[in-house]
Amino acid sequence: MNSMNAPWETLxxxxxxxxxxxxxxxxxxxxxxxxxxxxxxxxxHRAQGQAGIKQILTEKLRFTSIQHLVTKVDCQPTAExxxxxxxTGRLKTDDDPPHAFSQTFYVKPLNNSYxxxxxxxxxxxxxx
Length: 128
Fold this sequence. Notes:
alpha+beta, six-stranded mixed sheet
């Protein structure tokens, strides 16, 4: 593999940068990144469609300050010109200590642009 990013890899990395910048400053801005019938999972909260996603992002996630520290972004092309994006990193909310997280996006074209069709977020907390 050459050292130049493939177009799908660059697109995935740009999406991640825009996504976390909006998430950390104004979560409502994220809605424009989702397809109208997108599926969304954030820990135990699940929704399908922009209205349900908005409710989780703006009403159910109760932290006042948040910072995503991205460690790695891995991207793969998929069928239908889509992109599978896996993000790992650390999440800092309010006064809590940082926790490791992973998030997976499935992004594909719709109406001459790319949108998130699936989004799964999970903290990497091990309670034994």
